[in-house]
UniProtKB/TrEMBL annotation:
Record domain Luciferase-like: where: 26-374
Organism: Amycolatopsis sulphurea
Key words, A-Z: Flavoprotein, FMN, Monooxygenase, Oxidoreductase
UniProt record similarity statement: Belongs to the NtaA/SnaA/DszA monooxygenase family.
InterPro entries reported for this sequence: Diverse_substr_monoxygenases (IPR051260), Luciferase-like_dom (IPR011251), Luciferase-like_sf (IPR036661), NTA_MOA (IPR016215)
Pfam family, one: Bac_luciferase
Stated name of the protein: FMN-dependent oxidoreductase (Nitrilotriacetate monooxygenase family)
Residue intervals passing through the bilayer: none
Annotated binding of FMN, by residue: 54, 93, 143, 147, 217-218
Molecular functions (GO terms): monooxygenase activity; oxidoreductase activity, acting on paired donors, with incorporation or reduction of molecular oxygen
Taxonomic placement: Bacteria, Bacillati, Actinomycetota, Actinomycetes, Pseudonocardiales
Amino acid sequence: MSRQLHLLLLGNPRFGSTWRYPGVENGPAATLRSVIDAAKTAERGTFDAIFFADTLNYGPDAAWPHKSTEDFEPFTTTAALTRETERLGLVVTGSATFQAPYHLARQLISLDHLSGGRAGWNVVTSFAQAAAANFGGAGVLAHDERYRVAGEALDVVRKLWRSWGPDTVVEDRVAGVYNDPARIRVPAHEGEFFQVRGPLGASPSAQGHPVIFQAGSSVAGRAFAARNAEVVFTGQGDFERGRVFVSQIHDEARSFGRVAAPLVTPSLGFVIGATDAEARQVEETIFEHFIPEHQIGWLQEVDIDLTGADLDAPVPLAAFAESTQTHQTALAGYRALATQGNPTLREFLFRTVTAFGARVVGSPERIADEIERWFTGRAADGFILGPSGIPGQLETFVDHVVPILRRRGLFRHEYAGRTLRSHLGLPESFPLGEKSQRKPSVALH
């Protein structure tokens, strides 16, 4: 089978200054409509999944005046989307730092059943002090320790998902026995960070259990992804860095004894127009409406303090910490952006909104060319696409870029299966390698 491109949509509808853009409706009801419309459009384009990032705080205090409040929690948002979509994968972000493994395991397998086997979990390690203040206020763990906690949390979640095997349910109506207790696996986990008895009261889903995503590019994060992830979300800003990252992930995955390396899907921001010139005009509209002060507030979370700096002077590199215990990859990525082309601070801040990962501005052909270059050059297995926030951008991508990718033989014309694992070309993941004899989950429509 030939290699197939994977496309996922970043589903968060309100980020940065998007609430100011022309044509954007604000408020909870409008936000929900925009999420549903985006999911349906992505499904029409046969995308693999919609992906929801998440943070467990409202952001740094300095960003509050400029941030919209419609920041829906991803589990309930995707639960709503199970009624609005039939094939599109639903990937949620859950913190292994602050969210208990038992709750995560239960929520995720429930979402997997409700969607008919379309769920994925983006495992993150929360680094913001503002988030720690919402969970007991004990402070943020050191960078590498967060990954140790995440490794154990993921281990617990997987054990809980294995509580019920494919032969646990007997459903003997005459004897009044629904399941065989001897076939229930009780994790009884006693670890360094977690003590969880279990079991979880849920059988395997149509795809076994949710697909594991992870976004980590630091040394510790990359090792975690290479060992555990089935899909790696990353923010490589250029083609060569993307190729190096894919090679590193593959090498490290082999070092852990994995037969199949994880898929690598960098973020790709795009601004699209009928022509390159029209796309640049859309870019100008975005630039006119972005709020520099909002970005200054957010950058404080990765130890970049630009408070009071002249927006029209060169970027003061002295404001960048040499190292951080928060988000090491972000700090390095922002430093690289600040040194490309000697931008003013205002220009740099705009780049941080739109170009932490790869980015392309142009016509459908230009965007398709860039996607093909990364894919065929082994710098990516696919992309998590971030539209600019201007209404109509996603629809234009689906109507004009997707057909080009299909004509070039890079992307599917229709879904071949119904589960997220099927879309991604991943094997069904049943407990302990067993094949389920149970009826598949039934999505609620």
